[in-house]
Design a protein that fits this description.
Helices cover 31% and strands 22% of the residues. By secondary structure, it is α+β, with helices and mostly antiparallel strands. The protein has 2 domains: 30 residues, no CATH class; 97 residues, no CATH class. The strands form 5 sheets. Strands 1-2 form a two-stranded antiparallel sheet. A two-stranded antiparallel ribbon has the order 3-6. The chain has a two-stranded antiparallel ribbon with strand order 4-5. Helix 1 crosses helix 2, helix 1 packs across helix 3 and helix 2 packs across helix 3.
């Protein structure tokens, strides 16, 4: 939400889950860019992110908890923005191989040159989503 002079913008014209809401609320714009947001390829062959999320359980593929779909977190790990030896919350070790595998599948589907190229694409799309919302 945009904050002006210390106050969050408000609206009475909101949409939640594609349903119009006509009640006063903070004017929030949601975007597919969070760590668990799942990357996918649309019918036209374009790379997309969200609105589906891997959540915390099973979470991104790199959590090693059964997730197999490529996420923003998996891309950030492959790109080195999150260190492979990072322990999330002091408890969760990351599985770099699982992240590469998930991104390899996405790269194949999108016709990209491999997991690193898919990770770069996810990074660019997530940032474009956030920029557009701003």
């Amino acid at each position: 939400s945009l904050v002006r002079d210390g106050e969050a913008e408000r609206t009475t014209e909101g949409v939640i889950n594609e349903r119009p809401i006509k009640t006063p609320m903070v004017d929030v714009e949601t975007v597919g860019a969070g760590g668990g947001s799942i990357a996918w390829v649309d019918a036209g062959g374009a790379l997309r992110i969200g609105p589906r999320s891997a959540g915390a359980d099973p979470g991104p593929a790199c959590y090693g908890k059964g997730g197999t779909e490529p996420t923003v977190t998996d891309a950030n790990l492959v790109l080195g923005y999150i260190g492979a030896s990072t322990s999330l919350g002091g408890e969760l070790s990351l599985d770099e191989d699982a992240a590469y595998d998930a991104l390899a599948d996405l790269a194949d589907e999108a016709g990209l040159g491999g997991p690193l190229e898919a990770a770069r694409g996810i990074y660019r799309v997530a940032n474009a989503n956030m920029t557009r919302a701003i």
